[in-house]
Design brief:
6 copies of one chain form a homohexamer. The first copy, chain A, has 245 residues and is α+β, with helices and mostly antiparallel strands. Chain A is 32% helix and 30% strand. Chain A contains 6 helices and 9 strands. Chains A and F meet through strand 3, helix 1 and strand 5 of A and strand 3, helix 1 and strand 5 of F. Chains A, B, C, D, E, F: Keywords: Nucleotidyltransferase, RNA-binding, rRNA processing, Transferase, tRNA processing, tRNA-binding. Chains A, B, C, D, E, F: InterPro entries: ExoRNase_PH_dom1, ExoRNase_PH_dom2, ExoRNase_PH_dom2_sf, PNPase/RNase_PH_dom_sf, Ribosomal_Su5_D2-typ_SF, RNase_PH, RNase_PH_bac-type, RNase_PH_CS.
């Protein structure tokens, strides 16, 4: 059985991770999973939100959004509607939690890093691409802050790496990294966030059409774990080069 | 090892399902999981949202909210703040999706059922209590509508039953149905929604402190499946009695 | 002439005042006037709003709201609409003013008490039930704060008691404590708030259909004064028992 | 005892009612009660709100607002804050109800009249000035609509006249038509809306400091009734002249 | 060729500048350009916005708004809609910038002056009338503050005067100070703000129908410069009299 | 005198116009003026806003926004703040007006084209880059719609071309196409929108520090006209190639 774009069920789309995309942000990554393109900018500011002041600990948060025409039909701007939709809220929270899973707040010191993940073009898997790219932007921002002595160079604010991928069951077959057309036809859709050592940070599975059985869940988890490992390798490779500033 | 309230790791809190709580709603259930109390009101209206008109199919949606002093410290009202928070949005969407998983839209006809799940008192597991109670309110509302011939009495709009429970790992031990104090100390927190036949509708696991390994995930899924089955039995028992209107 | 529910014109509906309803709030009362049920939670916090800091005086305020399906047909949530309606605003202000009429701010010290009055089920007279119940919750919250020495135990922050009732003219007859069906058919509708010593805190009369004459107003004031006195007695009785915490 | 501005307790401030103030509105009145100046514009539009369509009946509504510097210290604009305050809401509703008390919806036909009452300068009693002026603007707008045959010239959409005044107890003395300085020092503050035949449309009394006794209430009602009658006479005089358009 | 109201192309409408209109504001001007009437109130407060604290410099800002029935058909209130429209935002910013062009922040000291420009009646050119009137209100407010020693009497916070006028091309002819009917028919519409010494503060030209050529632009700039000079003279004359407070 | 980036006063920054950037939009252009990068997506939909229905005429509108980290320091998202800022509103309106200046609504038929201009990286002149790029996206969208027969292929909905550039006076010297650092130091800042035949669509000049004299204005207009002509040439060149879809 061959997929719509010719991939095998276990195959990721072509993934690119372009660092230093924007000249302003302390970490800036344009990540693409096939035709899904997300710009992940990390902004470092001294200080923390009020509820955390004096704790000696830092904070990491994220905001996810889509350009109005990132999708096939234009969506209304949330700024014009005057409120953030439920989906946007949910994904922003997911990205933030995923990154915080590999942060040592003490080592960060009282600094805040905001990850802005803006989807420039969407073709399925935007939230998992956002997490995967944001991790790299976060790493670059921390390196920048350590270079400036904002964060002590001897500390290790990152306790690991984190990547994410979507999996789903389409026409009875478990598939890795769904593109939009597959996503629409999926019976079950799952987003999985893993650390580089293969443990889980988030598992979010949803029955879109039919409820799913335990063995299906097991198959999806296996696919996702392998996919995340492959993405972790791509993140490591991307970060191995020197970033010109 | 004994839990804070003396339960075994595999034990649910005392669960009560009180039908017919409000005199106005077509289905009205006060559900409690220990000290967590959620009022689930189902409202039936003829017609469907605009995007569904003419389809011959119905719609089911949900709104979740907390009273300001449902929790230990008072929270600001979202109506006063002028916007719904991310958590509220996320849970409302989860409840709605979970119920729609057992709905046959065709059998419902062009009717809409809204489930309002208002947490009167919170002690952990409010979203899973909401889903479990809302299912019963939904069943009552459908019965009411079939009694009025709004929905054809020969149709079966419910394709199954749905219940939900939280599980988590506290101090290394997988526990069923966390109360608030356990939830706060959990390393991993998972909400699982199952159909009465033991399949999954939603699996949402989050590493609160440490990422979790596959065997931990497996243990949690096992606990949750058993807990949901027990809750399904309680739902069936509650619905077995005749509701005075 | 007999009323819809068999009462005499001068008769209140059955009133119950259940203290200690919620385990979290410092004062928590479920009050019912017939089928109208309002949960009144009092929350004590140290400190006062900014404009009052350093004055040595406390503050009491209230927020009133209805659950979406408290009424016969479902209302949209104000949190979802993103704005508080005029009626909600107006009643919240009325409840707050009514309670402040019996508060000695100096004795309260720089503490704030917020009264949340959430209508769980509505059948007319929700605002007057809210005031009557909130007074009892307020008294419990003050006792709690005095027990904790947050408020000096020798002070008397309450200068009196306060209760409220609706009256109206239906088919030419002045009636006490209108239920919803009576309220809808009333020519004149009046809400009266009295102190325990029989003086007025608020008098709000509105001609719903026909303007009303002075003798009608006098008759309504007489009915309301007697009703408030009866409610004050019920409040005293409710507070006479010891509250288990 | 003489008042701050030399009036007797039973005396209104100088009242002026200037018709035809704006060239655009169908009825436009600049009303002043002493230094309180309110511009009342009546706008006639064909058609009614959706919930009233097909009824053959019209609708009258009102919106009250203050310019930011109508008062002694500048207030923030509600348009900039993005929400209407409770006081604004409450007064808008009061003005609308008061005018509707003298409207025969059938005679109005399916037309809507909106009364915009904008306080240009405030010195106490803005809501009662607004009602008194808005009645005159409403009468002019109806006459305009009858001149254009929008409303049948043979009908009488106005069933009476309506005026309003504030009263209060200051230093133990009941006073008519409080200016701002008196209002601030009042123990009790009452707004009364009467029809031209001396009946009540609204009675809203509030204990600002001390609860008030029945005889104080009676004294205030007497003062207010006389004040409203005087205002009704001024309205009649103002409407007796021919309005140039 | 004669204009709709009989003016020559180079002629302003009758302009009046009435100082001391409101008793509360530190500067209060009712300005009229023909039937356009704008109330400009200047409010002085000690202190500056947070971002300017400690700078020793003051701040001047402006808010522009229209009454709902200032225009021929009633517009919805922005406070009720819950958001400021683009046009309102744009004009508020223009008025603020124009006034700041003649302010020496150092001489102002850490004081803030807010100019509220509320259009009571509109007939074209409301923004330019607002600027012209607001300048006079600003001058009065500064004089008031210097009288109170809030601003040092020896300083000159105003570095010049500022006035504004609209110009446009109607049926091929460049016209000064368009009234509403001319504005609607204009091919090109331009607002010009000048200092008293004839230099430009703002030039905003828009092709409403046809793009305009350089010579047309030159003609419009000539007309506008002359108009602004005439308005500057009227401002000087208005400020030459003594203002009774 | 040499500029910060070595340009002559009359020299544009390197300009690139990349068509077909996004695969979803009917017209999609990534335009860059030096380090300023704006993504301009044109979305075609059948039908027009309600107020235009049945006219046989189309509509073109635009929305401008900045990514939070497009600038040197992160800005809050307007969607999170719940309201659009004045600057955003103003520029959106400017872009829309500029494009409509070259549209023949009749030829467009009852279709709507929305131009989304999202600034990915800002370095001065974002609004003028947006207009220049949006024109090309608009042209591509119209060609697409004519290819689909949505718009009659024989019609010419574009009556000309439109481009825009900023000019300003820095340290006494008039400069073309200011980068951010120049913009900050400019005494006068002007944005000029021209048609391809050299006429003006918009002229918006603002004195940032000193008011400007007529000869300075003339010098700026000259620079801007030449710059727009050069940009028009670049637009023509970009559109001369065949776009792969």
């Amino acid at each position: 059985m061959s997929r719509i774009d010719g991939r095998t069920p276990q195959q990721l789309r072509p993934v690119t991770i372009e660092r230093g995309w924007s000249k302003h942000a302390e970490g800036s990554v344009l990540v693409s999973f096939g035709d899904t393109k997300v710009l992940c900018n990390a902004s470092v500011t001294e200080g923390v939100p009020r509820w955390r002041k004096g704790s000696g600990e830092g904070w990491v948060t994220a905001e996810y959004a889509m350009l109005p025409r990132a999708t096939n039909t234009r969506g209304d701007r949330e700024s014009v509607k005057g409120r953030i939709g439920g989906r946007t809220h949910e994904i922003s929270r997911l990205v933030g939690r995923s990154l915080r899973a590999v942060i040592d707040y003490k080592s960060l010191g009282e600094n805040t890093i905001v990850l802005d993940c803006d989807v420039l073009q969407a073709d399925g898997g935007t939230r998992t691409a956002a997490i995967t790219g944001a991790y790299v932007a976060l790493a670059d921002a921390i390196a920048w802050a350590q270079g400036r002595k904002l964060i002590k160079p001897t500390r290790k604010p990152l306790t690991g790496t984190v990547s994410a991928v979507s999996v789903g069951i389409v026409a009875g077959v478990p598939l890795l990294d769904l593109c939009y057309e597959e996503d629409v036809r999926a019976d079950t859709d799952m987003n999985v966030v893993c650390t580089g050592d293969g443990r889980f940070v988030e598992v979010q599975g949803t029955a879109e059409a039919e409820p799913f059985a335990r063995d299906e869940l097991d198959a999806l988890l296996g696919l996702a774990t392998a996919g995340c490992a492959e993405l972790a390798e791509l993140q490591r490779a991307a970060l191995a080069t020197t970033l010109e500033r």
